[in-house]
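The pair is quoted verbatim as follows:
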Amino acid sequence: MSHHLHRVVSSEEERLILVDEQDREIGSLDKAACHDGEGVLHRAFSLFVFDAAGELLLQQRSAGKRLWPLYWSNSCCSHPRYGETVEEATARRLREELNIEAELEFVYKFAYTARFGESGSENELCWVFLGRTGDRAVPNRHEIAAVRSLPADRVSAELARDPQAFTPWFRLEWQRLERDWPELLRRYAQPAAAARR
């Protein structure tokens, strides 16, 4: 698997899925246009993947990213391509970005917008998943500048201390998980053996 690891896996030309506020598909548009100006609402996903020790895998977005380069974010976030299911897309991006597989559990979906100056915007209907992996992440350098793993309480402390170091969707999602799904989050944020008991 790893000899393909550092290939380019995304482009501004790939077609994303346009949706309405109820997440019904209404068409497709290339990725660049989806993020121009105020953005056009499209389907996306965010994955929070915990390792066997119960620590959350965080990624620092590569310097080459158009939006929020070098910001810290959750384990993996991307878009299903037109004609692709969310389940297919999440498995694909975990392999492409981190060279891992994970058992994922869908938690909720929400719409948000966030502007990154003149570079464009995120305007997404985002599916949020929690998951666990036993694999060691090997990041694709085209997508990711660095990775690290932190216990959940350290994630919360860093977000509180320096929120501007993190992507806006990660801040929104982590706060919502803590508020609305604390028991579920606690289950993932403990060692895998303890979670099974």
